[in-house]
């Protein structure tokens, strides 16, 4: 199965940190630029040597004969032979000068143009990805701040509500739980709520007005005279005269139900004394807890919106990284092919001038034939890989009920099957039902190909967004998408689970099982041991694996165990069923998850 950079350059420690993989890949890409510059320096040096050699040969051919030697014997056959040899040096010099020109025109200049374009392409891709990473990192910081603010507001609202519930009891009930009487000057009330009702009626019935001052306008102000007049009219039995009314007004001032707009300490029944109403302690507590709950609800909306925006940013970031890695792979293939073509041109150019170097050129051509870009890509990916593609969604975590009611992707199997109680997550059941109902319209080979096809995030993410709302998933929703997209979404769902289906705990026991050498007759014993290990995982995981394997077994029932497709399917599905919690240089090359899948199917 061909190697794809999108499967190798991700973070093995923190799936939300894309920098390690991208940085490693970009460093390798720019290493390729340095390699091309080394080749260009080599070609320039080779051209200089050829030109120097041509000059030396030409100078050697024009060297004057010694008057005491061949110059004295122009007709001798030896002299003519020597002159021919000298002439051949000049001809050879011209040929080497042509060789230098041919190397410059046919090898050096095309390679230089490619390197310049290649460098610009790499810089543009690196800068675009860097810009996207910085924006995504800023959104992650904003998300952390939003969650902290949301959590704090919820705690404040809960505390305010508890305070609001406790305070009225402490004010209105005595130690025995009976209503306490309330006094307001000479007026006796049966309880504090009765007094609050009396004050509310007073506030609504006494005429008020706005009073200007140096500090602004005092709204809804009442006079001491107006308060006493109302008291004498409303409670004549308690406020027989102005003095008794002033006593009630003084009590209202002392207990904080009214406040003067000017600094005074004694209440008078005067039109010039103006007062403003103050809220009662119960009303203030009630307003405080309602305001706190409103702030918590607003913070919740802001946090949820931030989660959705950051999650959309994450998915877009991964789409862009998929595109970037694919472009880098194509660029690296193009670079290796271009260098290969340059070396071929160099070999052909040299072989055209020096016949006796033909053997060397043939050897060079043999070497070039062994240069395979696909192999270099595989070596690069395997030696410098930082981790497979293992996306970790940003979940909205409700302060009260967690994550499972608001989304599907990234939520553990246990949470998804808790309410309502299910044995297999709803999304897996619906996807498999959709695929099985659509099998009749497609060829079996075509269906199989979709399980091993490269994951198309741009097509899968819209379906993911459609079903990832915490609502009931229906077959009607899935029928709006191609079956290939439904299968891709199921694979992405398994990738984004917080823990693989077989659980992290079985990674090394199963690895040990497959490391032991097993004779052909003992293969069934190994499968029995594998079943025993799988029996230890949680029931939801076991049932989910069983449902998936039944579907896959039906799809591959007519295939041989050694069929090439089985290897490709195991390569794709192995890490979805079994992967380690943290990838290392050793685990990156493990193949027992793939062997396990082939045995199970």
Number of helices: 19
Structural class: mainly alpha
Query: How many discrete domains?
Result: 3
User: What Rg do the Cα atoms give?
Assistant: 43 Å
Low-confidence runs: none
Q: Kindly report how far apart the N and C termini lie.
A: 19 Å
What's the CATH first level of the largest domain?
Answer: Mainly Alpha
**CATH topology name of the largest domain:** Substrate Binding Domain Of Dnak, Chain:A, Domain 2
CATH superfamily of the largest domain: Arfaptin homology (AH) domain/BAR domain
Q: CATH architecture of the largest domain, please?
A: Up-down Bundle
Mean pLDDT: 85
- Major beta-sheet overview: 4 strands, antiparallel
SSE arrangement, N to C: HHEEHEEHHEEHHHHHHHHHHHHHH
Q: So what's the oligomer here?
A: single chain
Give helix % range. 55-70%
Strand proportion, as a percent range, falls in under 5%
Shape: elongated
The strand line-up of the biggest sheet is 3-4-6-5
DSSP E strands, number: 6
Coiled coil: 126-153
Protein name: Rho GTPase activation protein
Pfam family, one: DEP
Domain F-BAR: 3-376
Could you characterize what this model shows?
There is one protein chain. The chain is mainly alpha-helical. It has three domains: 239 residues, Arfaptin homology (AH) domain/BAR domain (Substrate Binding Domain Of Dnak, Chain:A, Domain 2, Up-down Bundle), CATH 1.20.1270; 104 residues, Arc Repressor Mutant, subunit A (Orthogonal Bundle); 188 residues, Phosphatidylinositol 3-kinase, Chain A (Orthogonal Bundle), CATH 1.10.555.10. Helices cover 65% and strands 4% of the residues. The strands form two sheets. A four-stranded antiparallel β-sheet has the order 3-4-6-5. Strands 1-2 form a two-stranded antiparallel ribbon. The chain is elongated and about 160 Å long. It starts with 18 loop residues before the first helix and ends with a helix. 26% of the residues are buried. The mean pLDDT is 85.
């Amino acid at each position: 199965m061909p190697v794809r950079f999108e499967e190798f350059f991700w973070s093995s420690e923190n799936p939300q940190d894309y920098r390690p993989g991208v940085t490693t890949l970009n460093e390798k890409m720019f290493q390729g630029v340095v390699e091309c510059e080394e080749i260009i320096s080599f070609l320039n040096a080779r051209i200089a040597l050829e030109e120097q050699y041509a000059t030396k040969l030409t100078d050697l051919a024009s060297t004057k004969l010694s008057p005491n030697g061949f110059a004295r014997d122009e007709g001798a056959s030896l002299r003519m032979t020597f002159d021919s040899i000298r002439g051949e040096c000049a001809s050879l010099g011209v040929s080497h000068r042509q060789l230098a020109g041919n190397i410059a025109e046919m090898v050096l200049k095309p390679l230089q143009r490619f390197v310049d374009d290649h460098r610009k392409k790499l810089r543009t891709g690196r800068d675009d990805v860097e810009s996207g990473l910085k924006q995504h990192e800023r959104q992650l910081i904003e998300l952390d701040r939003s969650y902290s603010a949301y959590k704090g507001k919820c705690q404040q609202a809960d505390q305010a509500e508890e305070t609001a519930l406790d305070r009225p009891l402490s004010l209105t009930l005595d130690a025995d739980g009976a209503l306490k009487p309330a006094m307001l000057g000479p007026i006796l009330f049966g309880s504090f709520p009765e007094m609050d009702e009396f004050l509310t009626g007073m506030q609504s019935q006494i005429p008020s007005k706005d009073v200007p001052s140096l500090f602004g306008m005092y709204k809804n102000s009442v006079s001491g005279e107006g308060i006493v007049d109302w008291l004498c009219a409303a409670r004549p039995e308690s406020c027989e005269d102005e003095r008794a009314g002033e006593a009630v007004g003084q009590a209202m001032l002392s207990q904080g139900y009214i406040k003067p707009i000017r600094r005074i300490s004694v209440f008078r029944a005067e039109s010039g004394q103006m007062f403003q109403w103050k809220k009662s302690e119960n009303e203030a507590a009630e307003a405080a807890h309602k305001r706190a709950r409103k702030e918590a609800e607003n913070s919740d909306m802001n946090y949820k919106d931030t989660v959705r925006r950051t999650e959309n940013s994450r998915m877009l970031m991964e789409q862009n990284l998929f595109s970037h890695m694919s472009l880098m792979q194509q660029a690296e293939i193009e670079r290796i092919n271009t260098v290969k073509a340059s070396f071929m041109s160099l070999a052909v150019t040299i072989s055209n001038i020096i016949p006796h170097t033909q053997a060397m050129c043939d050897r060079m051509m043999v070497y070039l034939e062994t240069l395979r870009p696909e192999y270099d890509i595989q070596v690069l990916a395997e030696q410098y890989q930082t981790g497979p593609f293992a996306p970790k969604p940003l979940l909205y975590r409700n302060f009260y009920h967690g994550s499972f009611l608001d989304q599907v992707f990234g939520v553990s199997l246990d949470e998804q099957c808790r309410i309502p109680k299910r044995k297999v997550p709803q999304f897996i059941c619906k996807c498999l039902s959709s695929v099985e109902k659509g099998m009749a319209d497609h060829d079996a080979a075509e269906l199989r190909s979709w399980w091993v096809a490269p994951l198309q995030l741009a097509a899968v993410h819209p379906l993911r967004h459609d079903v990832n709302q915490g609502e009931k998933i229906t077959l009607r929703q899935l029928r709006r998408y191609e079956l290939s997209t439904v299968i891709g979404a199921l694979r992405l769902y398994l990738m984004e689970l917080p823990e693989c289906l077989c659980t992290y705990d079985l990674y090394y026991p199963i690895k040990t099982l497959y490391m032991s050498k097993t004779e052909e007759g003992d293969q069934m014993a190994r499968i029995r041991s594998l079943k025993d290990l799988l029996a230890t995982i949680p029931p939801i995981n076991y049932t989910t694996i069983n449902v998936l394997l039944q579907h896959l077994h039906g799809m591959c029932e007519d295939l041989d165990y050694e069929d090439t497709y089985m290897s490709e399917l195991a390569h794709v599905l192995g890490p979805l069923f079994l992967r380690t919690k943290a990838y290392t240089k050793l685990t990156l090359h493990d193949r027992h998850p793939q062997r396990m899948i082939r045995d199970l199917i």
